[in-house]
């Protein structure tokens, strides 16, 4: 009877055979029939039977509860997944619309372009050739167009901005004619890339971020060129750049200890408004172009000083470098950097039309750590490594594995430090809200085992480690379900249990040991 | 950043190489080979390529189109001290210890670990004298050995002893034992440094990490039961055996361990004179040695700065932090006074600074080092106390504010100390920078003697044009990453 019961969880069945139990199994001989002992025995047996049935019922009830809870969680996870999917689709649609819009804007550009390119420039790569026309719309006057033509073919991209720059340097506020034309050629450069389709597992805007990254490189070249003509400007930008880098290096995890470096960075960034530099259209460095704000916000005009954007870019670069070099070895160092990043990019005085310029940093993150954007690749192939953001050294060889691991660890931790910031008590807007974190985690964990790479395991581990609590604070039970997938299911599916996937799984053990959180049940 | 590969030639070279392991794809289609010869010019191209990969469900799998990475690219330089082909699993390490290693982000054994661990873990236990460059994983190697030798049914009997020349180092090793052993059930660890064990209290941990003097005292007072001792390990062994007092103490400790099975000596340097003594201390040992010109790790980029005067050094120092990305840094100075003076000025400039020198007492020193290790302070200013062994992973710059000179003879440069100092950065294959300050004939001569001793080239930095210096430093760091990241 015992064996029969153990395998069975069904309540009605349990009750059915329970009557055959010991209740009627006592001594029924006449002499003893009414003896007290017999009576007591029968009572005890009845009690035991009652207990047994009750326990069985309770067990069945509990099981049912658990099942319902499980079902609820599963539903919840499904809903969440669905939500993310819809959100992503919506965002992608937006992206597509924007791209169409951009294309519309570009249409007029080709016309002047046909006139300008002087023959010697033909062999230069397309990217440069297209940039060359920049000065034309900017300065229709003949001399400026002539000048680049006389230069050797390699030079034009350098000459072009320098030509545009002086005219702007002396324009004060509201210079409408020149720079707005700049985004147009940039877009033409990128138009071939429009053919790059994002796969369904990649997050929106990846192409746009790559574009922004390229545009920033050009902006940097412009500043360098400006410095070649103007030594005082060069010295000043150098000092500002180094001041930002020094301050970023001074950050520590101690509460309240970062005031001095933070105010230094703000001061340097603000100072760039005082130094004369040409204006640029900030939307060149943003995913979406905001309309002028109806409220009284700082920087509501058409442009921002080029130097300001340059320094924001330097700030972003310093943050990423600090993630790579410092947080890669001690991931906790990412936290203060994330705080400063969120603080700078949410500061209204450093925003444009009330919108954060954090896309400048994200363009960089997108390039150095593509797996955060859902990009996949095999570490055993050349192209796969390139997709994963595995760096090459100067000799064109892949950097060693150890170095790559460290980089990815730092960047994963850095991304968590930026995206899991609590702005509920802040007057400012969160420049990179937590749903980005969720999105990245979802895109990584949804990788099929055959395409999953150690890089993904490492980035995921770095994103989760030390940030479990924050993640819970934002997402509650959903975070629990997500962590189960990230730390148990995803590494469990790995085709080969290597060090990277094992390290991810060990994180689950650590959570159990240190926080009493058992994800495996 | 996925920059463009420099030459398509090198790419073509790689194509001809068979796949290192046929786990994901067995064959590389010839057509695919052709396609990949087109210069993969930039990131956007990589993206195009990525997009052609069909999603799950399709029969076409991405590796068939992509070119396998040649093994020598994955592990470029076989002579690198971090080069290894095996994994920790293959070395047969206990899974619980392995878990701790993973939690610490160890992924693969380094060369010293790969070579030494099979010898260290083999039975019967054999002695070992091992030399390897700083920051290549010596500590982890002997900690794994110690944890593998313990009898876990005797949690209160000291079974392994690790000796280090300073309390900081002992504390650090204690930390490593705790980290690697974090998933090992029933492991007990204890430090035996001045002030850590109360008078009369018994030492009741399986692993003891300490300084020779304290350990010897504990044994003499019978607070330390040596009957179950199995492993004795000396870190920075040359330094311990070389110094009169320490060497004596080590020897007496050893004599009090009758049943010892395995004696391990580890260091980055083993001068010949010490080597003979070491062989007596650890008889019939396996030896892993390095040649003198293999001593410096290529990942540490060594530069020097021409300063206008002794006083002008500070201005230069303050500028250095803007030149490159720096996590933590250590500044070595000659005197306590200049340590305090520099600390005050750097703090004023917004740096979180701690200074440590012989003037501090034990517990205070522990605290200072701990705040540096945790990253609460990011600049550490110190006299020679710390030249050896201290491993703070995020140290990316070491500054010789004063060139190390021989303590017995101030006109002689101290090459060994220089090596140990710069070894505080560039840990485990990361890029680190060392910058030495020279300002007069004597300091210049001392530094060039050291450079000659190790056969290294020092890059000169200029403090007149910081833009230019920034550029030089950037290139130096880049080039040190280039291929020879760990030229042995």
UniProtKB/TrEMBL annotation, chain A:
Q: Which GO terms describe its molecular function?
A: inositol hexakisphosphate binding; phospholipid binding; translation initiation factor binding
Composition bias (Pro residues) maps to 109-126, 150-159
Instruction: State what protein this is by name.
Output: mRNA export factor GLE1
Write out the GO cellular component annotations: cytoplasm; nuclear pore cytoplasmic filaments
Family, per entry: Belongs to the GLE1 family.
**Where in the sequence does UniProt note compositional bias of the Polar residues kind?**
187-201
Name where it's found.
Nucleus, Nuclear pore complex
Organism, as annotated: Oidiodendron maius (strain Zn)
Q: Which InterPro entries match?
A: GLE1, GLE1-like_sf
* Residue numbers spanned by region Disordered: 97-201
Pfam families, alphabetically?
Answer: GLE1
In terms of Gene3D superfamilies, this protein maps to: GLE1-like (1.25.40.510)
The organism's superkingdom is given as Eukaryota
Q: Name one GO biological process term.
A: poly(A)+ mRNA export from nucleus
Q: Which UniProt keywords apply?
A: mRNA transport, Nuclear pore complex, Nucleus, Protein transport, Translocation, Transport
TrEMBL record, chain B:
- Reaction catalyzed: ATP + H2O = ADP + phosphate + H(+)
- Give the start-end ranges of region Disordered: 1-42
Q: Which GO terms describe its cellular component?
A: cellular bud tip; cytoplasmic stress granule; nuclear membrane; nuclear pore cytoplasmic filaments
Q: Does the keyword Acyltransferase apply?
A: no
Q: Which domain of life is it from?
A: Eukaryota
Q: Where is the composition biased (Low complexity)?
A: 22-33
The UniProt record lists the Helicase ATP-binding domain at 119-288
Report the Pfam families cross-referenced here: DEAD, Helicase_C
Q: What class of enzyme is it?
A: hydrolase
Establish whether keyword Protein biosynthesis is in the entry. no
What is the name of this protein?
RNA helicase
